[in-house]
Structures are given as structure tokens and as C-alpha cells.
Design a protein that fits this description.
Length: 456
């Protein structure tokens, strides 16, 4: 019988160490080593000899390799196709992570059911076939090419794959799959690394795309070793607040497309609905006369949409300890903008509580939101409403200047499409702008110029 010993693996880089250390010697991460049980003798270690093709690849000179566009599988989902970079690439390995209950399995299952002509195998390690059937009935799409198997043993999974020869494989989730080659329990670092590497080998040798669903830690990172994210071709993050109906699909890593794309879904009783025009849903139509509300034209990836920025400024309840809180916006950037307001525009906010919220539960990092943020803060401080037919875009510099933003034409067109009569943009941001639009375009150089337009 093989003797067992304990060894330590780094959760960040997967480095193996014979004893525990506070700092990983490979990546320098502190407190990342965890203990696992492994077989002591090398003869008991099972070597992966599986091969999924008969002809091995041959080395080629770089000049003989043809750089052609990768053919992609249409997922019948505009939002998912956008985030993937135009569709699913054959032989690719995609990892989707997110909070428990956020809708990862629902998203993958309903996408599978839409692929009517593609034979798909859904490997479930967390739910029973009956539970998946109930979810499929709720989604309301029938597909005879969608096959379900509940299995966690990697060797048994590959037997099913060999018998079925699917065109797409889903593994839900990678943390539940285990290999007999490793002694440790499912979900451990060595198991996740070994199973992911075997699945990668299968995907690359057969040309079959594989989608993995992964757990995340309480910090929001993909559970398991960091090497898992390096192995896969694409890492998608499915996020959102369970108290809101919107879900955001972001690309963290993508070898076949941009990582700046964004997909928006709405959770309802029959699954996830694609939100093709989020601007209309993210704007409150009855904010006329209400202070502290400003509309910003932002860009996420190549997608323009309008977002409602809400601010509340009140006298500090605890003397000299004012509160600063931001939801959906970087708190450090908000503090910088408040300092600009005080230094460059002369508005004293040192003794005021400031609360900022991006409507709809979204989190946006576009610097073009700066002008709308300071306008909503000032609107609440003065208790004067911003004109409901006016939207804003512009980055605010430390000297109080309004800096140009990218893709100004798309922002202006989106504002006009949604019925706004005026948009405030940075000066000198319209070079090369030739489109004929009916919306009034007001150019400003400093924050004081914008405030004069909004509140005079």
C-alpha cells in the first residue's frame, strides 16, 4: 500500500513545498500555502497516457504557419458572443466564475439549449439530473441534442465523452471533479490543477470547446490555484447584486478577443434575458425636479450607454468625521473629485457626508463619468436639480479642467437616440466630428463652466 505524506501547495501559483512557510518562495505571496495529502512513492503516481488523436502535431517554421481568422461558434446570444469576442472558438477552454446563486449554471444551460444543431454534453457535479430538468422547464427551451450526465470522476467523464463525441462540453463545476491519479480530495489545489490540465489536453487535441464553471473565494477570486486562470483561454466573471435584477458578464482574460467588453442580462422567472439597450432600463424617467441626479454618457468596451448617477450630500452627523460612501464607483476617485470641487470650484464639503450610487447596481470604470459625478454631488449640495434633458460626459483633471474622452461620437449619438436635447462635452473633443445631429452640444473647459451651464 502506498505511503502517504503531506505537502504544501501555494494557492496563488501552485508551487509545491515540503513544509509550511509564511511566504511562498516562488511568487512571494504571504499566507498562501495549504496542506494536502499525496502519495509518497513515485511508482504509485499514475501517468496520464490518454490521447485523443492519432496524429501528433509537428514543429513548423514560423513562416509556414498560416495566420487565419479563427472560426467561431455562434452561441445564439448577442451578449455572450460580444464578451467572447464574436463567438466561441473551437478547441478553446473557457472558465466562468461568479458568486453562488448569481446565475452561472442558468446562463450556461440556457445557452446550451439554444444551440439546437450542436451536440452538447453537460457534466454536472453539483446538481442532479432532475434539478437540471426543472431549470430547463423553467427556461422553456427544448433541445434533444443537449445531453446531461451527473459525474465527478474525471476518467468516467472521459468515457462518456468518448462514447458521445460531443461538439461542446460543459463542466459544472471544475472544483467538484477529481482524478484517481491524485490522492487529495476534490476541490484541492492539486486536483483542480490536474483535472484542468487533462481537460485542456482533450480540448486542444480534439478541437472541442470546453466551458468550465468555477467557484470563487470570499475575496471574489476564482477558487483554486492561480495557475487555473493561466491554463484556460478565456476567463469570464459573472457578477451582480442578488437584490438587483441585472447581471454583468465581464471578460477578465481573453486570448481571442478584447477584455473590455461587457454583457448585460436581466434575471427573470424564465432565466436570463439579454439587455440589448441597457440605457433605457438604467434611466429613471421620473427624476424631474429631484436634486442629486445627473445622467452620464459612458463607454464600456465598444458599447455606449447612459447611466444615472445619484448623489446625496448632507451635514455630517458625527461632528468632524464625515462619511464617504460610493456604490458602483471607485471610492478613491470620488475622494479625488471632491477635493477638486473644494480646491478648484470653492465648494466646502469637508463637513458634509457624501453618498454616491450608480443606478441599477452597475460598476463602471469609465473616466467619462467624472463630470456627471461632481455635477450630481453639487446638485445635491445646492439642492438644485439638473435639467432632465441634459446629459454629461468628461474626465475631470486635478486642476479642474475637463479632459477629452474617447469615442465622443458614439456617446453623442446614444444621447440623441434616447431623446436628450443637450449634452455637455469637453472642449476640443469634437475634432473630426462630422455627423449631423439635432442634439445641442455644449463644450466646456473647466468644471466652473459646466456648473454655470447647469445651475445658472
Amino acid at each position: 500500500m502506498a505511503k502517504l505524506k503531506s505537502t504544501y501547495f501555494c494557492t496563488n501559483c501552485g508551487n509545491e513545498s515540503p513544509k509550511w512557510m509564511g511566504k511562498c518562495p516562488a511568487c512571494g505571496e504571504w499566507g498562501s500555502l495549504v496542506e494536502e495529502l499525496v502519495r509518497k512513492d513515485a511508482s504509485s503516481r499514475i501517468t496520464d497516457t490518454r490521447s485523443f488523436e492519432s496524429v501528433k502535431s509537428q514543429p513548423l517554421p514560423l513562416r509556414e504557419i498560416r495566420a487565419e481568422q479563427e472560426p467561431r461558434i455562434d452561441m445564439n446570444d448577442e451578449e455572450l458572443n460580444r464578451v467572447l469576442g464574436g463567438g466561441l472558438v473551437p478547441a478553446s477552454l473557457v472558465l466562468i466564475g461568479g458568486e453562488p446563486g448569481i446565475g452561472k449554471s442558468t446562463l450556461v444551460l440556457q445557452t446550451m439549449l439554444k444551440l439546437g444543431e450542436i451536440r452538447t454534453l453537460y457534466v454536472s457535479g453539483e446538481e442532479s439530473a432532475r434539478q437540471l430538468k426543472l431549470r430547463a422547464d423553467r427556461i422553456g427551451i427544448e433541445n434533444d441534442n443537449c445531453l446531461i450526465v451527473c459525474e465527478t470522476n474525471l476518467d468516467e467523464i472521459f468515457k462518456h465523452i468518448k462514447n458521445i463525441s460531443p461538439q461542446l462540453v460543459i463542466v459544472d463545476s471544475i472544483q467538484t471533479v477529481y482524478s484517481d491519479a491524485m490522492e487529495s480530495s476534490p476541490g484541492s489545489i492539486s486536483q483542480v490543477r490536474e483535472c484542468a490540465a487533462s481537460i485542456l489536453k482533450y480540448a486542444k487535441q480534439t478541437g472541442t470547446p470546453v466551458v468550465l464553471i468555477g467557484h470563487i473565494t470570499k475575496e471574489g477570486n476564482i477558487a483554486g490555484p492561480k495557475v487555473l486562470e493561466h491554463i484556460v483561454d478565456t476567463v469570464l466573471q459573472f457578477e451582480g447584486d442578488q437584490h438587483y435584477m441585472y447581471r454583468i458578464l465581464r471578460s477578465i482574460k481573453n486570448r481571442f478577443g478584447s477584455t473590455s467588453e461587457l454583457g448585460i442580462y436581466e434575471m427573470n422567472q424564465s432565466g436570463l434575458r439579454e439587455v440589448n439597450n441597457p440605457s433605457e432600463l438604467l434611466l429613471t424617467q421620473n427624476h424631474e425636479g429631484l436634486s442629486g441626479v445627473a445622467i452620464s454618457a459612458v463607454i464600456e468596451g465598444i458599447r455606449p450607454f447612459l447611466i444615472e448617477t445619484q448623489a446625496l450630500v448632507s451635514t455630517a452627523a458625527y461632528g468632524g468625521n464625515p462619511q464617504r460612501s460610493a456604490t458602483g464607483f471607485d471610492i478613491r476617485r470620488m475622494n479625488m473629485l471632491l477635493a477638486v470641487l473644494e480646491k478648484r470650484a470653492g465648494f466646502k464639503l469637508a463637513q458634509k457626508d457624501v453618498f454616491l450610487n450608480i443606478a441599477g447596481g452597475l460598476r463602471v470604470n469609465d473616466p467619462g463619468m467624472d463630470l456627471a459625478v461632481i455635477s450630481s454631488v453639487l446638485s445635491s449640495s445646492l439642492d438644485m436639480a439638473v435639467d432632465r434633458d441634459t446629459c454629461l460626459t468628461g474626465e475631470v483633471g486635478l486642476s479642474g479642467e475637463i479632459r477629452p474622452v474617447n469615442r465622443i461620437e458614439q456617446r453623442i449619438t446614444e444621447a440623441e437616440k434616447l431623446g436628450f436635447s443637450r449634452i455637455i462635452v469637453p472642449a476640443n473633443n469634437l475634432k473630426g466630428f462630422k455627423s449631423k445631429v439635432k442634439i445641442e452640444i455644449a463644450q466646456v473647459k473647466k468644471v466652473s463652466d459646466a456648473f454655470r451651464l447647469l445651475f445658472s
